[in-house]
Structures are given as C-alpha cells and as structure tokens.
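[job 0417] fold request received: DUF4886 domain-containing protein
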Amino acid sequence: MHIRTISKQAGRFVPVLFCLFILQCVSAQKPPLRLFLIGNSFSQNATQYLPELSREGGHELIIGRAELGGCSLQRHWEHAVAAEADPKDEKGKPYNGKSLKMLLSEGTWDVITLQQYSKISTDLSTYQPYAGKLYEYIHKLQPNARIVFHQTWAYRSDSEDFGQLTGGGEAKSEKEMWEKSRAAYRTVAAALHTTVIPTGDAFWQISADPKWAYRKDKQFDFKNPPQSTLPSQTHSLHVGYSLNKEKMNFDSHHAGPAGCYLGALVWYGFLFQESPVRLTFRPETVPADFAGQLRKTAWNTVKKELKASVH
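[job 0417] inference complete; emitting structure tokens
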C-alpha cells in the first residue's frame, strides 16, 4: 500500500519535473547577446550598469569595445584606414594595440553601435562621409550584425558650452543641443536605413520634467564656494560639481551615476525590447523614487523609438 501510494504520487510529479527540466534546458541554450561598441567615454557611461541590469533580467550579455576618449566618427574611420593601408602602423591600432578590424573579427557580433563625439554631434556636416564609410566597413566584416547609432545626450543646463552648429556658432542651451543632435543622428540613421538607441531623448525627458529636472542651486555661492562644500545637485544626470583635494571641479558633459543608470536602462529596453521597469537594481547613490522615474522614462522613450522604427 505504501509503495503504491508513493508511485502514484511520483507519477503526478513526473510531468511537472519534466517541464521544468525542458524550460531550464531551453534557457541554458539561449545564446548570449553579443554587443560591440564603437565610441568614447559616452558609450562607456551609457553601458556602465548594463551588465547588472542584463543579469537581473536573465539575459547573458557579452560586450566588446573600441572606445577612445573624445573620439569622433572621423577619427575612428581614419584609424581603420591606417590599419588597412599598413597592418603594422600603430595609428591603425589605437584600441590597446588592436585595430577595429581585429576587434570586430573576434567572433560574431549581434549588435554594433556607432556614435558621434558629443561636442560635434549637433553638426550634421561632421557625420558624413565617415558614418557611411564605417557602416559599410563594419557590414563587410560582420554582415549579419545589426548596426545602429547611439544617440548621445546634451550637456547639463548650467554648462558653460554646448555643441557646435552646422555652418558655425554653438548651441545656446541644453534644449537646443538636444534638438540639433537628435536631428543629426536621425538624419544619418535614416539615410543608412537603421535606427538609434535614444539615450539623448531619455535625458531630455528628465531635464524637461518640472518635478524631476536638475535645477542649479541658487543658494550656493559659486564665486566664493565654502571649503570642502558642494552645491545641491538633486536629480542631476551629469557629473556636475565634485571635490578633488578640496578643489571644486565641474563636469557638465559626462553622465553621473543617475545618468549612467538611465543610459543603461535605455540600452536594456532597446536591446532586449523588454521593459526595465520591473528591475530592482540601482546604484546606491540614486534615490529609490528617482530610480523609479528613470526606469519609467527609459521604457517610455524606447517604446516610442521602437514604434517609430516599425513605420
């Protein structure tokens, strides 16, 4: 009697256990997404927290990088040309002693990204012919890869400079820098029949939000700052003010923890076409309520981009 009961109960659980085993096998067999970045410090910023988000979301991710500080599309292309002309030329191997061709040839890549140097991202004339040449060069090396553009962000509202404009001059505000850069990225992407990762759009959505936007501290004495004291920088997506041996430095260009987090959320949503809203990881310095808003903003921005790319 006892043996029969055990057998009967075991029989009930066999199908369930078998299904779980199959699901585990399918999950284990899912290939990792292989992502390759051709950029600079902005691509480093935007993907800083992407590995953590991907792990939490159950996605295996492999990232390859060809990044140089302040590097433009033109400079990346000129390095590639130098390597093709003479594989031994050091100019052609600026990525820790390797050329772009060498790095791209290290396996098969699923998604490859390109971006313009932020300072000139507002000037459409700086993209071509380099964007097109790089696109064609990459496609020959990785014909099955999806090549997209990473739309970088505008500098913080209290920046002392913004991007240069086509025909001369400079953008006057964060909004103008976002508008001009956005237009340039989309013009080039459309010409090459591809799309963009809308990081810059997500940054602007936060900067334009009355509740969540960064506002310069009006109570702080910037001309005679108190020693070892920084102004309030609540909701700043950029590095902003920092202390180095009691000296106050200012970086209105690069992303701080919140900006790096927002960028990674946008990349997560774009790459996996999946909402990051449910994810719980956040940098310790980003408050929970702000992190929640960044997750929502990232996904709303990505959804608009994905919808637009279908039409």
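[job 0417] notes: Residues 2-29 form the longest helix (28 residues). The beta strands are 33-39, 61-67, 111-114, 146-150, 196-197, 238-244, 247-255.
[job 0417] exit 0
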